[in-house]
Amino acid sequence: MRKINELNPTPEGYYVTEKIYYEPQKGEIELALSAFACGLHLAIDGPTGSGKSTFAKRIAYLLGKGYKEIPKLKSEKTTKLLLDKIEPYRETGFPLYLVSCNEDLAADDLIGREVGMNEDWLNGQALLGAKHGGIIYLDEPAEARKDTLVVIHPLADERATVSVPKLGYVEECKKPHMIIMTYNSMYQDPRKKFKPSTAQRFIHEYLGYPEESLELKIIKEKTGIDTNLAKRIIMIAKETRNLAEQRKANIIAFPDYRVGIEDKRLVDQIDAELERLQIEEGKKVA
Ligand SMILES: Nc1ncnc2c1ncn2[C@@H]1O[C@H](COP(=O)(O)OP(=O)(O)OP(=O)(O)O)[C@@H](O)[C@H]1O
Ligand SMILES: [Mg+2]
User: Is pLDDT larger for residue 265 or for residue 63?
Assistant: First the structure.
């Protein structure tokens, strides 16, 4: 291996330190924790705003600062496996390495690259994951070129390695790690499907929008608005989602019709509306 000067020798900055609020729709938390315990990897498909990124952060939070909130899994054996696995990392938790995939993502972004002229080396997220453990989170991986994603194949199977050809060595991952991919198959260009060899390395789960009572709970929790207003907002959201669903047949011809209102925009709009009302209320009092 060539001698280099690592610019990012630790995963500093990748830890999820704030509490992450997430309401599970089905058994996705249990699935992810069990996958982590068993050294398996997870792919989550869901429409925009269905909570995929929040879910990934919640898992990283649970494996770190939120350790005490880890739920008891159905299988006692898996619970024990999980707790034994993460016990040595109680103090630090596990980093979450977010990779927002796009066409320009290169293998070197995931592995690492030389910077400048002084043998300086910047580790990519996959290599950081192999060195220090944690969650490598690939958002919209189908947007990346298929040959780029191949880099993670040995990290996602029994080899648990990342090859670093530019430095002439293979990093063996000795710490617990998991790859989470999240994507929206409804939004995806049908030509941008995963390679079967990529897909088969992951457990796949679909998350739709939360059912009404859960969505009500989430919106109330995140905005503090009353039940009636929250119900009306959900009704509007449902209408637009139905519209998006009905136009599905036109997906390729009219790409913009694919998007229904997602929770994030709802929440942002409610926040803006509440702020406006407060300002008006303040003016009245003054
Ligand atoms: N189950 C949930 N529990 C808590 N919050 C949720 C849940 N689902 C959605 N949200 C909230 O909705 C908003 C959007 O969620 P998020 O960004 O995770 O969605 P996403 O699926 O990653 O969207 P995109 O595909 O556009 O990236 C966030 O504010 C998030 O907190
Ligand atoms: Mg997201």
Answer: 63
| Secondary structure of residue 76 in the 3-state scheme | helix
Nearest partner of 132 among 90, 100, 170, 177, judged by Cα: 177
- Output the CA 222–ligand 1 centroid distance in Å: 11
Cβ pair 247, 200 in contact under 8 A: no
Task: Among 147, 174, 206, give the residue marking a domain's end.
Answer: 206
Give residue-wise pLDDT tens across range 224-283.
Answer: 999 999 999 888 888 877 776 665 544 433 334 334 455 566 667 667 767 776 777 666
Q: Which ligand is nearest to the CA of 187?
A: 1
pLDDT one-digit tens code per residue, 81-123 = 999 999 999 999 999 999 999 999 999 999 999 998 888 999 9
Q: Which of 278, 208, 194, 281 is nearest to 244 (CA)?
A: 208
241 and 269 assigned to the same domain: yes
C-beta separation of 66 from 20 below 8 A: yes
- Give how many domains the chain has, as a whole number: 2
Q: Which amino acids bring their CB within 6 angstroms of ligand 1?
A: 21-23, 25, 46, 48-54, 184, 210, 218, 262-264, 267
For residue 261, give its domain range. Answer: 212-285
How far is ligand 1, taken at its centre, from the CA of residue 163, in Å? 34
What are the residues whose beta carbons fall under 8 Å from the beta carbon of 224, sequence distance 6 or more?
274
Give me ligand 2 centre to Cα 76, in Å.
Answer: 32
What pLDDT is recorded for position 180? 98
- Whose alpha carbon is nearest atom 27 of ligand 1? 48
